[in-house]
Amino acid sequence: MITTACGLFQDLALLHRDHRIAAENGFRGPIAPGALTLGACIAPLALVIGKKTATHLTDEITYRAPVYAGDTLDIEIVAVRREGKSRFGLIEYATHVTNQDGQKVADILTKMGHAYAPKETA
Fold first, then answer.
1. What pLDDT is stored for residue 13 in this prediction?
2. Model pTM greater than 0.90?
3. How many CB atoms lie within 10 A of CB 42?
4. Quick one: which of 15, 17, 31 has its CA closest to 63?
5. Whole-angstrom Cα distance, residue 41 to residue 33?
6. What is the C-alpha separation between 82 and 68, in angstroms, rounded?
7. Contact status, residue 33 vs residue 5, Cβ threshold 8 Å
8. Which end of the chain has fewer CB atoms surrounding its CB within 10 Å, N or C?
9. Which Pfam families did the record assign (predicted)?
10. Tell me: the pLDDT tens digits for 74-100?
């Protein structure tokens, strides 16, 4: 998967493809490109919100630890803020990602617009 992702993203970084280079830099093997990690971690949002999404606005990601081939990621998604005055119903989601060892690998804040008008507030 990592090699395929590197080809898709035209990622030439040797940390993502070369075992020797990765080991020389303190990693146990090639690490997943950030774009692959981000994509895998935010894809479950579609399961949470379904067809109500009008637009995917932003993602802010903080990488906490490397992701390796064969890692199992546990993804927790929480709606943390709803913006009441906007063209769309804007909601921010916090995504917390840990690996099979319980190590935090990423935190992501995603802002999405939903296909409903927010309730008017007085």
1. 82
2. no
3. 21
4. 31
5. 13
6. 34
7. yes
8. C
9. MaoC_dehydratas
10. 999 998 988 766 666 788 999 999 999
Between the CA of residue 24 and those of 65, 107, 112, what are the distances in Å? Answer: 17, 27, 40
Other beta carbons within 10 angstroms of residue 89's beta carbon come to 18
Amino acid making up residue 4 = T
What is residue 7's predicted lDDT score, i.e. its pLDDT?
Answer: 74
In this predicted structure, the answer to whether residue 44 has a pLDDT above a threshold of 50 is yes
CA gap 83, 81 in Å, rounded: 7
What is the H or E stretch that residue 86 is in? Answer: none
Please give the pLDDT value at position 116: 60
Structural domains of the chain in order of their starting residue, each with its CATH number: 2-114 (3.10.129.10)
Alpha carbon distance 111, 60 (integer Å): 9
